Fold:
Amino acid sequence: MQQYFIQKKNSDLVVGEYVKLSHEDSHHLLNVMRGQNGQTVQIVCNGQHFLANLVDTVEGYAVLKVFEKSSYDANQIELPVQVTIACGLSKNEKIEMIVQKATECGMAYFQPLSLTRDVVKWDSKKAQQKQNRLQKIAHSAAEQSKRALVPEILSIKTLKELLDSSLKYQHKWLAYEEIAKQGNHHYFANLLSQTEMGEEILFVFGSEGGLSEKEVAAFKAAGFKLCSLGPRILRAETAPIYALSAISYALEINFQEENHGTK
Amino acid sequence: MQQYFIQKKNSDLVVGEYVKLSHEDSHHLLNVMRGQNGQTVQIVCNGQHFLANLVDTVEGYAVLKVFEKSSYDANQIELPVQVTIACGLSKNEKIEMIVQKATECGMAYFQPLSLTRDVVKWDSKKAQQKQNRLQKIAHSAAEQSKRALVPEILSIKTLKELLDSSLKYQHKWLAYEEIAKQGNHHYFANLLSQTEMGEEILFVFGSEGGLSEKEVAAFKAAGFKLCSLGPRILRAETAPIYALSAISYALEINFQEENHGTK
Structure:
């Protein structure tokens, strides 16, 4: 069943309420999915899931009536840790792929990061446009993957700005392929084994250009832990997807197995 | 350092030998990388790594002289299990992305699979072209990710052909999102815990169109085990990447941690 997000800041959604989809979501439901009155869709508002019927179309906007609160639990859908993926600036199609796939894999925040070896730069005019475009991609990927939350795309930061703001994270990790060359692949598992439910992880990835030695030193000095993502060299856009998949496997799948004890 | 594969069927490469890169690899080294005589690259032949210098260019082909056998061990680079990724037919850009990223993540074979709900069909004329194109993508992704082997793209199979040929695999798994709806995410970890080094896994994924109930029943009847890939719905092109990342994490990263005992 198709899922759409509804923004409501001051109160939760209730059964019986009428809601209007956003312009993009209305277009998707009415034109792409050819939605007819009476059709049921899933609505998510403030992490709560509801069922709603399409009842009207007003000036191109889809109007829905909420008829049931769903038993879906956001905690069962969202990763048990909050992962911020911070990436150096890659070409549009690569950074957009990262945001789309990382959203499917459970990312909570995306932090564009300006690094010295980036192959592209965002000037201040473009930065807001790029951020908006990535936010739309995250929105639609979150609907498609049935997330309970839309990952937030943060404003671009320089390395210094990122390090200054990194105190709030319980865990700060840097993916660094030199660790792979030393064969120390277990570092990542060590780091994951030290996380607790609900904690915030800031996980940093270079762009195609990689990281300079100065940057790596600055991350180390700021308390970041370095880790590799296995023995093969991953492209800039593959590394965050590998990382989130591994986090999901470790904390949602293998964890469950231990609980079930059905090995 | 740039890596290229050399095909040699009847004997291994030896130090002192001269080798010629393929047409595509010569173009890459000479034109894309602007290689100069004397430049050192890594050569992989039959899973063995060597260092070689560019010494000449003959009719557009790069000629290299092998000067050192590298201490690189294929076993340290390749996944400890042989994973065949079998996928329903997706649009070109999606199936190409799967092959590229799955190569980075350690896939051994790619099996295109014709399923009833596929959004595209390969007619017999196109099938060979598509297979060749995917083989080139796997080749270049294997070089880029420093694999010891190039994953082989197999000829397209129908479901019946796949099931008939599936006896040789020790493990046959089907990614099926209905398992996710039941919350039984631990199935995947259970399956992985039953694998041994060197075993062959056939892991099947539907295309965007998904699997029909008849197909799922046929897989079950043929002894395939069903599993989900966590609680979020993944796109057709994301699921194999998630799966391989999780396999790598479980068998290369978390496994190492247990060995190191440095938790």
